[in-house]
User: Which sequence fits this backbone?
């Protein structure tokens, strides 16, 4: 984490961090010393959640309430959250600021003894552009760490009162985005995910391209009756839900006038229909050689199996 002659060059720090990650001998020791939820030394990069201030994690809330400086992702972070938890902090909107401006801002405040927080929307690990800021700060000797948040796909599934994975309906989830200025047509795999059949495809950063994306799916021969749900501003006061199919959703989103800030979910899981009862609550956890004996060992094994299965189901 020590500085260098390039310590004021964010790109040089990013490149150097990438090189170190390729060398197992240079693996950051903090990977093995800390886990998510630990309060660590340095600047936390916190997921603010999808919008509702109550969906900020306990760890995130504790850190922002204690902060002197909060650098936040503009209107993507609900102003109510800032008013409620950051009233005593100086807040800076990161929109329009590049790394060459943001990094010195946070570095100088941290060196002055301020408790600095970087607040991203959702979870910073999903389309958050957090790592480049962290690498640049680390290059200047400022330690950083992640604090997970609730991503909008999870808020959208909660609004729709369904799961993203459902037995016999969807075994997989894909977080993706459509082709555009930052993603080439060759890098757009939405059609492949939808074509697998048992995948719930969650599209971020693609509200403006819903119609175009659905037209491509139809041209590729995908079932026009495949369910699609679009949740605008998931968990915000002005949240809106638009439901339809690959064939109809584009026109409905266009009529609603939304061009940003919506999460698109493609697949049968969007409706919550057609799933089969899982093994977890269908007697599977009670099966075994000791299941009928009632002895302590059998009960312990059964409880352990149920606990393991439930953990896996939650994941």
Assistant:
């Amino acid at each position: 984490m020590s500085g260098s002659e390039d310590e004021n060059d964010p790109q040089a720090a990013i490149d150097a961090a990438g090189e170190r990650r390729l060398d197992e001998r240079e693996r950051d020791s903090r990977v093995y010393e800390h886990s998510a939820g630990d309060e660590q030394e340095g600047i936390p990069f916190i997921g603010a959640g999808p919008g509702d201030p109550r969906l900020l994690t306990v760890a995130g809330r504790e850190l922002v309430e204690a902060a002197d400086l909060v650098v936040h992702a503009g209107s993507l972070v609900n102003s109510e959250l800032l008013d409620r938890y950051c009233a005593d902090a100086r807040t800076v909107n990161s929109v329009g600021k590049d790394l060459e401006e943001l990094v010195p801002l946070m570095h100088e405040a941290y060196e002055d003894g301020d408790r600095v927080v970087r607040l991203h929307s959702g979870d910073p690990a999903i389309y958050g552009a957090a790592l480049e800021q962290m690498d640049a700060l680390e290059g200047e000797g400022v330690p950083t760490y992640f604090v997970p948040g609730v991503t909008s796909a999870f808020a959208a599934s909660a609004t729709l009162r369904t799961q993203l994975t459902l037995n016999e309906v969807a075994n997989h989830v894909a977080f993706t985005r459509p082709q555009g200025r930052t993603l080439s047509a060759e890098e757009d795999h939405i059609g492949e995910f939808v074509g697998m059949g048992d995948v719930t495809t969650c599209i971020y950063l693609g509200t403006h391209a819903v119609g175009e994306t659905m037209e491509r799916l139809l041209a590729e021969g995908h079932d026009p009756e495949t369910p699609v749900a679009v949740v605008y501003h998931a968990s915000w006061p002005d949240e809106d839900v638009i439901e339809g199919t690959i064939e109809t959703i584009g026109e409905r989103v266009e009529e609603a006038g939304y061009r940003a800030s919506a999460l698109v979910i493609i697949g049968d899981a969007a409706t919550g229909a057609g799933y089969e009862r899982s093994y977890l609550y269908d007697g599977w956890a009670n099966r075994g050689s000791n299941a009928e004996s009632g002895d302590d060992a059998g009960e312990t094994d059964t409880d352990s199996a149920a606990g393991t299965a439930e953990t896996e189901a939650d994941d």
